[in-house]
Amino acid sequence: MRVLISGASGLIAxxxxxxxxxxxxxxxxxxxxxxxxxxxxxxNPASGFLTPGVIETVDAVVNLGGATTGKIPWTKKxxxxxxxxxxxxxxxxxxxxxxxxxxxxxxxxxxxxxFYGERxxxxxxxxxxxxxxxxxxxxxxxxxxxxxxxxxxxLLRTTMVMSRKLGALGKLLPLIRLGIGGALGSGKQWWAFxxxxxxxRAIIHLxxxxxxxxxYNITAPxxxxxxxxxxxxxxxxxxxxxxxxxxxxxxxLIGEAADELLLCSQKMTATRLQSTGFKFExxxxxxxxxxxxxxxxx
Length: 298
Description:
Layout: E1 2-6, H1 11-22, E2 26-31, E3 40-44, E4 49-50, E5 60-63, H2 76-99, E6 106-112, E7 123-124, H3 134-146, E8 152-158, E9 160-163, E10 166-167, H4 172-177, E11 190-191, E12 193-195, H5 196-208, E13 214-218, E14 224-225, H6 226-236, H7 247-254, H8 256-262, E15 267-268, H9 271-275, H10 285-293
Parallel strand pairs: 1-2, 1-5, 2-3, 5-6, 6-8, 7-15, 8-13, 9-12
Antiparallel strand pairs: 3-4, 9-10, 11-14
Helix pairs in contact: 1-5, 2-3, 6-10, 7-8
């Protein structure tokens, strides 16, 4: 398959491209500059430009573009960038798909666990209604734009992605390695997670499953609390994790992002993904943590 990928330099897309190549497929990276090689395609989502004729040549489109929510605090200007970076890129791809004489078989479009908002101890599956807050509104708008595509659409409600390259753990794990990390807030909030390996595998699996459409929670089948995750990471690197960061201090430092990104509780299920026959390489917290702290040379 030829697979066109936006957000191609990101953590998930980098792993996805590696796995696609290993399987004999041809990933194409969308770039906001002149293409320098045969596996690059020029586009400019801000203006709606996509190299003409490319969409007709690909079997699948994976839309992972979007500015990081991890850049905090969220100023009014940056919130607009978060919105535009997702909606502009999705609209550009959807418009190209809908105008194509030969359409890709599937659009797999990024979304996020933020769709659900704060859920406490509630078990969250794909039938759980939209929540409240900026991230929930953003995810809903993103999904609505993708759903306009005139082809099979899969919405990837992705949660915390765990990787050796840190990713979502980029600021937390270094502190834990220094022995000065700890739970955030009460530590009782549920943090759904998935290894970057399983994230990419799930995308390819849903790409190949002709019956897969609509929203899927892209998460490991085992949820963990913030404290459980921090404790497991600390144990894996043989460090204490005794310092708790108070919620009020987090809100003072990073504003609403504290509540929506770090203190928010989402106990997500992977039942719908598993019902398609998908098998996880890292189904548990212990397996995901072992992967994160393992030596990539081994």
